[in-house]
Amino acid sequence: MVATIVVLLISAVVYYFFINNALIRQLDKSLIAEETEINEYVKTNHQLPDPEDSKDEQEQYAEVTVKGKRNFKSVLIANKKKREVYYRQLEFPVAVSGKYYMAVVRKSQEETEHLVRLILKITLLIVLLLLITLYLVNRFLLSRLWQPFYNTLQQLQKFNIASGKNIHPEPTNTTEFRELNNAVSDMTQKAVNDYEEIKRFTENASHEIQTPLAIIASKLELLNQTNLDENQSKYINSIADTTSRLSKLNQSLILLTKIDNRQFSQSGKINLAKVIETHLSNFEELLHAKNIILTKHLPGEFVVEMNETLADVLILNLITNAIKHNEENGSIYLELNDSILKIMNTGKPPETSAESYFERFKKGSPKSESLGLGLSIVKKICDVYNFKISYNFHDGKHSVVINF
Amino acid sequence: MKLLIIEDEKELMNSIVTYLQGQKYLCETANDFKTAIDKIEEFDYDCIILDITLPDGNGLNILKQLKTYKKNDGVLIISAKNSLDDKITGLTSGADDYLAKPFHLSELGARIAAIIRRKNFDGNNILKAGDLVIDTLAKTVQINNQSIDLTRKEYQLLLYFASNKNRVISKTAIAEHLWGDNMEGNFDFIYTHIKNLRKKLTEACNHDYIKSVYGMGYKFSAE
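ok -> structure tokens follow
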């Protein structure tokens, strides 16, 4: 469109110049005719003719000492009506009976200017009409032609693999669009199928592993009801605890995989302050029992757009981590403001570096029961929503900060 | 109280039955979808423990059947899947509760007791254990008509014990019941809670309802 406009404007300008020149050439020819007439007259009559002075034409003669040069010029001169108008003039030398004169013949360019202006106006009008038609055609005709393409494009943009819905492009007569639609349809169908399969696999894996673990745990619990001596009960409970750890590890891994597979894609407006309050009140007595002092600065509302389950898991993991790695008579500090969540707890310094704190399977402290997956889950959830999370240990306190 | 346990894993089924029979429940079993349907057609149960991943049919369809027959049996879904969709579908299809595998048998016991209490419209919200009288609606506890003041967690703990009378309950099971799955590690803080609860109970009457079983956990007994 822009290229068309530029070309049309350039050609309009060029057009103007050519027409103008052509018309001036026309004028010049008529001036030459006058010149010839005057020369003829002088030849025949051996004297200068009466100078013409009409509205459109002027003739002047001036005696000169030296033979002048013949030339064409456009001049701005007052006409008979005392208005300043452009004249095309031809100056040429004339010899009459041994005396030299400069003859000037002028013709008004008013007419030609009128003509040029008219031509220019018509041309511009045509150009304008052309542009409008071009625009209208572009908007209505072409956009309708491209409608199937835009339709498919829109569907692609809205495509959500987790929804299980395939793309059904509108049927079209255009070959290229039909081919595009078929390719898109096939691809999305395959993607949806693969995704469903992965989901099913994840769920089935959980099922397969949890059931044997459940059986083991149940038998141990029944054993507990029988008469066991000290050693027997010690071993039984050690097995029970380990089985429990195994089961939790499995659940955490499944959760991480599900997050990776975008199985928690549904988001809503979650009031994190409320989630935190709920979990904190649940742990109130526990904190009291461990003599942990809780300081909290929470607003009434702190809304974040994320999945409800993940929000719950995030907060729960952060809080239980702060409690688990705390010490008797320790403290927990929780702050939620602007766009950050800060949670600090007292505890032994970590054995690993601050950078690798969130890596899976890293243990942060001598409490060997903790496998560190809780924080990996926290990090993963933050990654999904692009929340920045950082950790450091300072002044005897572990501190985790999340930037939403 | 009559229970129906629908579970395809035989070993797990046996564990559940053994535990619940010890709690004086009458237990019937079904290993697959068809048997389950036959049983619920013929009998009424106070609570049905339903594993929804059965080999020959979706357990949720059993829920639908119960609705069709307009039955009032309580339903506790047990499932290895632990997916939120599953849980929501189960509860909206008419189940009373959802418990993910693996679970503590004592947790199962507590949930079943809760469902039966809720389902029993004769106003039987009273749980009696020895001289203890627990009103689960009002959430109050009395011994010999004397009210005992318990914190929220102490109440939950007592209810848990009373729903699993004469069973040894591990510290892990207690911790998970009170604070959820995430509390792994050292459970010594449980000791403080138990100590406080015991103190309050023994102050009201001379009987020590909660006994420690060294190395294993705790046992609630009314004798």
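The mean pLDDT of chain B is 85.
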